[in-house]
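Budget justification aside, the reviewers requested a transparent look at the raw inputs and outputs of the sequence design task funded under Objective 1. We therefore reproduce one unedited record. The lines immediately below are the structure tokens for a 367-residue chain.
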């Protein structure tokens, strides 16, 4: 075949094929990117909560201070506290480096006035604490100057605080996993939000709900000691003080919008109940109370209460990490079975069908 003819035939095929192809039109309009909506975070929020913390007092002298200047006080509990999204405790007594308490007579050695050195604040931070309640009957042991010192110490460490007074410092808000979590602190004196003032409690919870997705209420209330392990359905009086009708208070704040209620103050653990899918822990007991207290039996029992909350605040479950205070007040999670059993028995006795289910290993679930 003629070479020229072959080439011409091949060219004709190419032209014919090209002519059959659809025409490509270049658009000058930008191509819109697909819209990807943000997926809301539905992961539970974990809160690890403990009761009374008093890491040693330099007043009236240093005989009640821990060894090694307190460095080892919280080592055994740090892993559990640090693992939670938020770790909470009640700071029982101010952090201040000077001052004299008006509660104590000159020369008195039996006056329960606590003054924790400000340098001990770093132990709270290292242990994993994120927020502290300052609403209790010892926060004002050394007056307003020591209260201010406490706030400044915690602020410098990035630890939030709630309940230092009725207005400016009653509530604090943290952001965790994209959710805003408010803490409100209540006590039983006239300086802090009072557990006996239910109208004001409703007001604070309502205001907190406008600022936060989840609201946690902490209260310092109830009688003290081994005779006060059960929760009465009435007003409690102790040393002439009105220390709250705590079931009424707790249910009132949940009705107003609170999602978790954490109690402390009796120096012993108390039971727990479920109310409207929310958990109420009536007393978390002593946690790290060095030097001043007689720690034996129930007063030496302690725990870390780990809770899991849904983004809307519902209680999903949790765990009691039982423990005890050794020696003069060093918390350990070894041998905590007795603490778990104690809380379970008290919960069933006081709240019956409303008590959460607590397994032998401390796992808490809604029945």
């Amino acid at each position: 075949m003629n070479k020229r003819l072959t080439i011409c035939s091949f060219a004709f095929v190419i032209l014919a094929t090209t002519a059959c192809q659809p025409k490509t039109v270049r658009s000058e309009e930008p191509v819109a990117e697909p819209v990807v909506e943000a997926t809301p975070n539905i992961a539970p929020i974990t809160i690890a909560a403990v009761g009374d913390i008093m890491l040693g007092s330099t007043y009236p002298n240093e005989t009640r201070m821990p060894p090694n200047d307190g460095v080892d006080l919280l080592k055994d509990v740090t892993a559990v506290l640090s693992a939670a999204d938020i770790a909470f405790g009640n700071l029982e007594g101010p952090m201040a480096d000077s001052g004299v308490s008006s509660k104590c007579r000159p020369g008195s050695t039996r006056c329960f006035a606590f003054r924790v050195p400000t340098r001990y604040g770093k132990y709270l931070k290292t242990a994993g604490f994120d927020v502290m309640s300052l609403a209790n009957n010892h926060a004002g042991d050394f007056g307003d100057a020591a209260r201010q010192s406490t706030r400044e110490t915690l602020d410098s460490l990035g630890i939030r605080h709630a309940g230092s007074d009725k207005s400016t410092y009653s509530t604090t808000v943290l952001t965790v996993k994209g959710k805003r979590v408010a803490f409100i602190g209540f006590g039983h004196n006239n300086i802090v939000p009072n557990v006996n003032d239910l109208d004001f409690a409703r007001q604070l919870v309502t205001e907190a709900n406008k600022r936060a997705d989840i609201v946690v209420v902490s209260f310092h209330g109830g009688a003290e000691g081994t005779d006060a392990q059960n929760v009465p359905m009435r007003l409690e009086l102790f040393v002439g003080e009105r220390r709250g009708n705590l079931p009424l208070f707790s249910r009132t704040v949940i009705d107003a919008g609170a999602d978790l209620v954490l109690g402390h103050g009796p120096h012993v653990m108390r039971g727990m109940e479920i109310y409207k899918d929310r958990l109420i822990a009536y007393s978390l007991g002593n946690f790290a109370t060095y030097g001043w207290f007689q720690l034996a039996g129930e007063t030496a029992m302690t725990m870390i209460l780990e809770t899991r909350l849904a983004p809307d605040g519902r209680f999903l479950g949790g765990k009691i990490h039982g423990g005890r205070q050794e020696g003069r007040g060093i918390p350990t999670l070894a041998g905590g079975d007795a603490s778990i059993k104690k809380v379970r028995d008290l919960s069933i006795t006081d709240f019956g069908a409303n008590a959460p289910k607590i397994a032998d290993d401390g796992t808490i679930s809604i029945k």
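Confidence is low (pLDDT under 50) at residues 1-29. The domain at 45-102+110-365 is CATH 3.60.21.10 (Purple Acid Phosphatase; chain A, domain 2). Computational costs for records of this kind are itemized in the attached budget.
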